[in-house]
């Protein structure tokens, strides 16, 4: 929850009452409300907590207890009420008599306390019980014994209060959160072709009329613009994808894609990459720490690393920036309107001037002046007397 | 629904009765049945509509109304019946008294009318109601008042009548359609490993004993043959895939794959591509507007664009057709039984004659005669006194 | 079930009794229990079968019948009992009278027999019934008529007894098995981000704290270690992946990945490949029958086939082993600490000695001595008077 909160550590585990007691020093001299809830129930809605606090304040009760009803309440503490319906206490399942076990209303373990009423009650609880633990629920009998009122709020959404106890439960909770997040985005104008196969992290934002195809995973501080088409089978983490982009069968990590980019299928965009508008990153392309200006194309089978690419550049298939000499990485600068032929090697550090052309199959090791044609290849020879091994062996 | 239908536009939205009135001119002089249904309920089965029309005809009723029963009918128009059970009218939820609100049978909004009885009734409805709208349901009271009979057909499949009102609903409807389409293909002999993760468009056809792995999306006018293995993680749109093909982790757009092709993993087959039988398109291969004859192989890391490839050709890894000079695309012709070495550049326009060989690493700029060996590369030199930067720096 | 079992073939299909009769010869002289069950009900738990056998033994009954209760028992044989509740026989649905049809307890078709009581009863059943078939269920009336006792075991898990009759049912059964297998691994300490999108075969094993992302398919005799990250969108078949590996957006077939390898995105690792520890196989890389020693890197756009790669080797992007001359495959040996430049062609058979360097864009056709620099390329020329077609045409 970040550094804006104060954290208190319960080193020994001596019960729920003991856990809250750990906060006693931090609470000293404070007034107002203390919300007590579990750390492992991620599905509980903020609205429910807000309502519980509001109930405590409005009623002036010493505490407000969140309750729910279960078809099978076995194992849960039951809510005991007077004939008039007033809360009188909580009885743990193992201490409950048959009549009490028949009660379906159970304690969820979520409470809002008036701090000034909790602190003295907390000081009085003791571990004299079967478990030898300090039960937080003991404060309710102490409070009601002293004539204080305890309010209760019953929620119908028992599922939201479940905490996963193993990885099956964890997957179940993640499924619920995934569904809820996807519904939020659909209601805000995002088309999700199959919400069951779309994974959107809690910090992600997505613009209107973006369409998300199945197998898409959006995580971290990712921001996808409007009118994009994302997926299928795409993962984007900690990246910005501006309006009108298409990203399919690809991975994008810690990158920034400008408007109307087309990415993939099968592109791998790595950290430090940023593109301007209308850039095309095609199939089997890896970009690592590359900045590309507007209108440039890297259509296929290319590795660009540690490079700066100007406007309206065309990178031929098979182009490789040789950015690594075995020790350090060097930078390649490709200026505006350059045309790189296929299977070219650009040995960094290197500058290719604006409007220059690199011939297909060339290994470029030194600067290319603007508008020059750089070429480094052998003349083609056609040997007509030659017999190929596959012919010779009669295959 | 295409150009074979006549369309009528309701420019102002003055109610359902007004909507049907818009068709009055188109209906002039016509006899027979008029089926009225919503445009946003895609799940309604054709069988249900056929049964409704048949009921209208067989009973000679002025209209047949499709009804259903809901556990919670709140918001829906209720079907009012006489003690004998005859339909007497529809009462909207907000106009219904408590006894009427207790009725569970509701109007679905789907009707079959005898045109000659609908037209005069439609002329008599008025917008004198709370909403100021022309209600189509008003025609039923007019008809029954005039002594006409109204037939009803109750369907148990209330879900099929739901129309999505937002993108969550849209995803729900698509899920139902996906499930139904997948079941049709499974019952016709297609193995779908996980129907929840398989997306088959309504115009797609698939042959017997084809196996579809998860993450597969088949859309448009795609036709997949028998005994194919498609997916995982594959998208095929507007393409033909003939019998016995394997296509995995790949995308195929507007292409035609001949019998027993093997495609992928990670191939991108783009429009205008067609292959004959037993062609292999391996990993990291892009084909764009390429025709490939039987038995040829493009196994890896290749871009072929605007090319014609003969029979039993072998294309080495890293081969690139340099089809683009910065202005126009040119064509490469590779005749039968050619062998292209690795990392070759084929600078189009270019013809490589049958049986020719291109040496690895060659940039081929002019025609290669049949059976010739074309080579364009420098002799290897081994410099033994040289110390690599990574060695020099003691790394 | 393998060669440790004896199989008996029912060539003609003359009923369930006839099927068991086929085993009569194989049973001759045997004592003990015979478990009879269907071949098409894969979901039945081993525990249920064990309990059925135990019941037969403990009660000394001639047979124990597994029963269940169905809300709609239509079509199933009903369990008939005496007033005291003792099993007296099974009546097929079509032979049942209205009172019998009201019975909800049905025969599952799973039985445990005392062999010495089954064999004589089996000899006495006849096909004198409407179907002209030998019913196995006829043995129960024969046994009870002779005074033998029949025990019954009722299971509440009717779903587990369903056998798929078409591919829709098959997909349903596979869904149940997938869910069950995934839950086993989650409870054993594997994090499965979305169990609905994870496919783990029955022979696969997975270590603790491995995380599996959606779209992952693990099949065959695959063994994944601990602390791995597998997926998304990855298929691994018949392979070993040791501890601490990451494999994403990739396919691995019949390969062995050593500890702490990083694979993908978009790698294709084919049979015969094995790697030592801390090997990196990056994007758009195909390995086929390659052995790679510790610490080596094949980061991008590479095809290695039939190669042996030493320790701490760096393979530049675009490197191709030219292992195929059109007839046979040849082997490439790259010794320790070699550095291969980008877009190099390594024409096999070939040895590159330890510490050697291959210049970018070189086609290497003959041995490179240890620590040498091998280079095969033309000098770069910059033609400055040249006008590119795209400039000439004013584009």
Write up this protein.
The structure is a homotrimer of 395-residue chains. With 395 residues, chain A is α/β, with parallel strands linked by helices. Chain A is elongated and about 105 Å long. In chain A, α5 packs across α6. The first copy, chain A, has a 15-stranded parallel beta sheet that branches. In chain A, a hairpin with a 5-residue loop joins β3 (78-81) and β4 (87-91). The longest helix of chain A is centred in the middle third of the chain and has 21 residues, at 167-187. Chain A has 8 helices and 33 strands. The mean pLDDT of chain A is 93. Chains A and C meet through α7, β23, β31 and β32 of A and α7, β7, β22 and β33 of C.
Provide the fold topology.
3 copies of one chain form a homotrimer.
Chain A (H helix, E strand, L loop, with lengths): L15 H6 L2 H4 L5 E4 L9 H14 L3 E7 L8 E4 L5 E5 L6 H4 L3 E10 H10 L13 H8 L4 E6 L11 H21 L3 E2 L5 E3 L4 E2 L4 E2 L3 E4 L3 E2 L4 E2 L3 E4 L2 E2 L4 E2 L3 E3 L2 E2 L4 E2 L3 E3 L4 E2 L4 E13 L4 E13 L4 E2 L4 E3 L9 E3 L4 E2 L4 E3 L2 E3 L4 E2 L4 E2 L8 E3 L5 E3 L5 H4 L3
Parallel strand pairs in A: 2-6, 7-10, 8-11, 9-12, 10-13, 11-14, 12-15, 13-16, 14-17, 15-18, 16-19, 17-20, 19-22, 20-22, 21-22, 22-23, 23-26, 24-27, 25-28, 26-29, 27-30, 28-31, 30-32
Antiparallel strand pairs in A: 1-5, 2-5, 3-4
